[in-house]
Amino acid sequence: MDNQKDTKTEDSEEQEKINETIKDLEYKWKRALADYQNLQKETAKEKAEFVKFANSALLMEILPVYENLKTSLEHADENNHDAWLKGIKHVIKQFENILKDNGVQIINPVDSEFNPAEHEAVEKTETEDEKLNNKIAKVVKIGYKLQERVVQPAKVVVYIEKITN
């Protein structure tokens, strides 16, 4: 009978240890889950903050160009168009340099083959010259690529060979 009591006591102690281990593991699991959820929230917050201010560097480059445009307009002289035009050309060059430095490429497909990945045909014009078929006749609006990805296709008029019966 003593053996049965000892076995029951040992079983009871063993069960108690198992229960404590389960409680400890459950606590650690809940703590790890809470830490993970907090990390997710913090990461989402940091990402939102990054996105919010991602363009601040670009803005700092564009602001001087904007200010130069305003200054050009303020100093525009009705009798001296040449100086004003020279200033505007300078501002445009500033913009082009900023775009280039930030990975923007201009799509200006004059005299090139129509490419639907980079061009949007807004009009077609017939031609009898077979060599001009599917070539760009006119660029209505230039397009832009950012890091080799088209963000705005060039709007173009495309030559289409006139079919004669």
Automatic annotation (TrEMBL):
<dbReference type="GO" id="GO:0005737">
    <property type="term" value="C:cytoplasm"/>
</dbReference>
<comment type="similarity">
    <text>Belongs to the GrpE family.</text>
</comment>
<dbReference type="InterPro" id="IPR009012">
    <property type="entry name" value="GrpE_head"/>
</dbReference>
<keyword id="KW-0346">Stress response</keyword>
<dbReference type="GO" id="GO:0051087">
    <property type="term" value="F:protein-folding chaperone binding"/>
</dbReference>
<dbReference type="InterPro" id="IPR013805">
    <property type="entry name" value="GrpE_CC"/>
</dbReference>
<keyword id="KW-0143">Chaperone</keyword>
<dbReference type="GO" id="GO:0051082">
    <property type="term" value="F:unfolded protein binding"/>
</dbReference>
<comment type="function">
    <text>Participates actively in the response to hyperosmotic and heat shock by preventing the aggregation of stress-denatured proteins, in association with DnaK and GrpE. It is the nucleotide exchange factor for DnaK and may function as a thermosensor. Unfolded proteins bind initially to DnaJ; upon interaction with the DnaJ-bound protein, DnaK hydrolyzes its bound ATP, resulting in the formation of a stable complex. GrpE releases ADP from DnaK; ATP binding to DnaK triggers the release of the substrate protein, thus completing the reaction cycle.</text>
</comment>
<keyword id="KW-0963">Cytoplasm</keyword>
<dbReference type="GO" id="GO:0000774">
    <property type="term" value="F:adenyl-nucleotide exchange factor activity"/>
</dbReference>
<dbReference type="InterPro" id="IPR000740">
    <property type="entry name" value="GrpE"/>
</dbReference>
<dbReference type="GO" id="GO:0006457">
    <property type="term" value="P:protein folding"/>
</dbReference>
<comment type="subunit">
    <text>Homodimer.</text>
</comment>
<protein>
    <recommendedName>
        <fullName>Protein GrpE</fullName>
    </recommendedName>
</protein>
<dbReference type="Pfam" id="PF01025">
    <property type="entry name" value="GrpE"/>
</dbReference>
<dbReference type="GO" id="GO:0042803">
    <property type="term" value="F:protein homodimerization activity"/>
</dbReference>
